[in-house]
Amino acid sequence: MFGLGLEELLACGLVFAAVVAIVVVMVQTIKAADGSPVLSWLGPRWIAMYHDFKRKRAFENRILDLTMGLANAMKAGMALPQALEKVSDQLGGVMREEIAVVLREYRLGMGITDSMARLAERMPGEDMFLLTSAIRLTTQTGGSLVDVLEQLVNTIRNRTEFHQKLKSLTAQGKFEAMAMASAPLLAFILLYFCQPDLMQPLVTTTTGWIALGVVAVLEITGFLVIRKILAIEV
Predict the structure, then answer these.
(1) Predicted model pTM
(2) Which residues, 6+ apart, have CB-to-CB distance to 90 below 8 Å?
C-alpha cells in the first residue's frame, strides 16, 4: 500500500515509537541538567545544519545567473576559466566563494571539468548536475559550449518557472501533510510538560507502547495518502 509493505509500516511505527522515547529521554535530561550542557552540544550542530542549508539554497538560486553569464562571457571570446572568474566576481556571495575553490584547484593542476564535478558534489542539485554534465560532455566531444549553455539557460529557466508554479499549487497539501505528521509528536511533548503524570503510562506500560504504535501507523498512512496525491513526476 502506497509503496510500503506491512513490514515496512510496522518498522515505521517502531521508528516513531523510538523517536518518542528519544524525545522523552532528551526532555528528562535537559530538565535534570538545567538544559545548558545539552543545548551547548546540540545548538552548534543545529546552527551549522541551518547555515549549510541556507548556503546550498543561495548557491542553487544563482545557477541560472551563472549559466547565463558563462554563455555571454564565452560568446565574447573568454575561455571557460576566465569566464568563471569574471561571472563569479559579478555574482558575489556563495557563488564567488565556491567558484574560487574551483579556480584554485584548476591552477594547482586539476582539470576544469574535474573541479566542476567536485563543486557539484559540494553543492548537489539538478541544475548544477546539468551544468557540469554539459561542460564535461562538450569538452570531451569538442562541440560548441556556448550553444550548449544557451540551450541550458532556457532549460533551467523553464524548469525553475515550472517548479515555482508546482510549489505554489501543492503548498497547502504539503503543509497539511507536515501538520498531520508532526501534530501527535508535538501534542505528546506539550502534554508531557503540562501533565507528566498522566503521560507516563504511554512510555512505561505495554498498552501505552501499543497505543503509540497504532497512532504511528495511522499517522504514517495519512501522510502517505497526501504524499501520493501530491507526488507529481516531472
Answers:
(1) 0.59
(2) 69
If phi over 0 gives left and psi between -120 and 50 gives alpha, with beta otherwise, what is residue 119? alpha
* 27 pLDDT above the threshold of 80: no
- Write out the three cell numbers for 207: 498498552
CA trace torsion 144, 145, 149, 152 (10° rounding): 70
Residue 3 has pLDDT above 50, yes or no: no
Rounded distance, CA 213 to CA 2, Å?
A: 19
Burial of 17 (0-12, 13-18, 19+ CB in 10 A): buried
9-23, 57-71, 198-212 — which is least confidently predicted?
9-23
Q: CA–CA distance from 117 to each of 132, 194, 200 (Å)? A: 6, 52, 52
pLDDT tier for residue 149 given thresholds of 50, 70 and 90: confident
Instruction: Give the residue extent of every domain in the chain.
Output: 6-40+163-230, 60-153
Domain 60-153 has CATH 1.20.81: yes
For residue 104, the one-letter residue type is R
Residue 40 has pLDDT above 80, yes or no: no
How far, in Å, CA of 86 to CA of 90, rounded? Answer: 6
Question: Do 149 and 70 contact (CB within 8 A), yes or no?
Answer: yes
Exposed / middle / buried, residue 220 (Cβ in 10 Å: 0-12, 13-18, 19+): buried
